[in-house]
């Protein structure tokens, strides 16, 4: 797995959301919206809620409002020459960027466990439950926390043959991207933004327990498939339905957490955004406690995606991705150089 960098410089005077020492050079914009929302200027969260006022320099700007209750993002491009009021309506909602996912359920996963060669299995009904759990998270977290600036087009293709596990030097069992790509040659650069693999951790005496729940490869454009890759090793216990319901109520972010590793460690930093600092293990998505967020981290994921994590150490005032960035290039578009940003 590979990791991150790249820092967005201090905001230029023409795009700074706050007045700074040159407040007299700024023009006041009054912003209204159909409901309470969070105001963005040129992609950066301002810390101001709509209805409210922001100060900008003369020139072209993108002003956005993320609606708090309906989870929609509205935007206007405006050439500011004098004080004005920007009245946002639902007609200002942009078309969402389409991201493409491939979800793969494994019927059988095999390896050499402590008891020797063995396999774990999911039935068709159980894979359906796993897929429904994923789709639930897409609606409740992936799209919602992006203020619906992205829409996920999900394809499902289960693998019926036994899939071999790889055991690393640390003893962890994984389903490697190369293993899946060999079984599914349609996984090519530009085909998907992320591949999600769901498999069973233990069954009877056969156990592939490892010290992780989900894994993500953190620099998709450096992988051979040039695609985000996530594997979720699920402990089904006596009842998969009961386990899924348990995680929905106590730790619902597993799918979102792993996907954020694929875009929040390198991808958006390489596009010039400033995200939160790395945690002690070198991973940005694990830095929640450094910014005073608490388990199960759902507020952290929300603010991380909204670009509204408070930066106590200085400039910029807020860290994260933000709705405007989600409207830009996706992983698969970057993989094939089919967009400009």
Write a concise keyword list for the protein shown above:
21% helix, 5-stranded mixed sheet, 8 helices, 341 residues, 4-stranded antiparallel sheet, alpha/beta
Folded structure, characterized:
The chain is elongated. The chain starts with 26 loop residues before the first strand and ends in a 6-residue tail after the last helix. The strands form seven sheets. Strands 11-8-15-19-18 form a five-stranded mixed sheet, covered by helices on one side. A four-stranded antiparallel sheet has the order 3-2-5-6, with no helix packed on it. 21% of the residues lie in helices and 30% in strands. The protein contains eight helices and 21 strands. The longest helix is centred in the middle third of the chain and has 19 residues, at 124-142. The protein is α/β, with parallel strands linked by helices and 341 residues long. The protein has helices at residues 124-142, 177-183, 240-250, 254-264, 267-270, 298-306, 323-326, 331-335, and strands spanning 27-32, 37-41, 44-50, 52-56, 59-67, 73-80, 84-87, 97-105, 108-113, 116-121, 150-156, 163-164, 166-167, 173-174, 194-200, 202-203, 206-207, 214-217, 228-234, 309-310, 318-319. α1 runs parallel beside α3 (240-250).
Reconstruct the topology from this structure.
Elements: E1 27-32, E2 37-41, E3 44-50, E4 52-56, E5 59-67, E6 73-80, E7 84-87, E8 97-105, E9 108-113, E10 116-121, H1 124-142, E11 150-156, E12 163-164, E13 166-167, E14 173-174, H2 177-183, E15 194-200, E16 202-203, E17 206-207, E18 214-217, E19 228-234, H3 240-250, H4 254-264, H5 267-270, H6 298-306, E20 309-310, E21 318-319, H7 323-326, H8 331-335
Parallel strand pairs: 1-7, 8-11, 8-15, 9-12, 15-19
Antiparallel strand pairs: 1-4, 2-3, 2-5, 5-6, 9-10, 13-14, 16-17, 18-19, 20-21
């Amino acid at each position: 797995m590979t990791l991150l960098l790249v820092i967005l410089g201090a905001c230029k005077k023409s795009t700074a959301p706050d007045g700074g020492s040159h407040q007299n050079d700024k023009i006041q914009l009054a912003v209204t919206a159909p409901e309470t929302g969070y105001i963005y200027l040129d992609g950066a969260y301002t810390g101001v809620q709509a209805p409210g006022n922001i100060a900008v320099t003369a020139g072209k700007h993108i002003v956005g409002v993320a609606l708090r209750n309906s989870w929609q993002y509205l935007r206007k491009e405006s050439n500011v020459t004098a004080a004005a009021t920007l009245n946002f309506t639902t007609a200002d909602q942009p078309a969402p960027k389409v991201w493409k996912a491939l979800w793969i359920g494994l019927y059988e996963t095999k390896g050499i466990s402590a008891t020797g060669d063995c396999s774990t299995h999911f039935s068709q009904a159980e894979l359906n439950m796993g897929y429904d759990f994923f789709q639930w998270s897409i609606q409740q977290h992936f799209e919602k926390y992006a203020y619906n600036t992205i829409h996920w087009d999900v394809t499902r293709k289960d693998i019926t043959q036994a899939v071999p596990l790889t055991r690393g030097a640390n003893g962890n069992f994984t389903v490697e991207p190369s293993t899946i790509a060999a079984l599914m040659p349609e996984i090519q650069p530009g085909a998907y933004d992320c591949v999600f693999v769901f498999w069973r951790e233990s069954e009877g005496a056969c156990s592939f327990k490892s010290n992780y729940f989900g894994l993500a490869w953190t620099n998709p454009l450096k992988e051979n498939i040039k695609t985000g890759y996530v594997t979720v090793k699920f402990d089904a216990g006596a009842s998969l339905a009961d386990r899924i319901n348990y995680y929905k109520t106590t730790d619902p972010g597993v799918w979102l957490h792993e996907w954020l590793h694929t875009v929040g460690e390198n991808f958006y930093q390489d596009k010039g955004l400033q995200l939160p600092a790395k945690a002690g293990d070198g991973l940005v998505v694990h830095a929640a406690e450094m910014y005073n967020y608490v388990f199960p981290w759902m507020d952290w994921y929300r603010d991380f995606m909204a670009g509204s994590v408070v930066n106590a150490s200085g400039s910029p005032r807020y860290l994260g991705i933000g709705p405007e960035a989600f409207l830009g290039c996706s992983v698969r578009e970057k993989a094939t150089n089919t967009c400009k940003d």
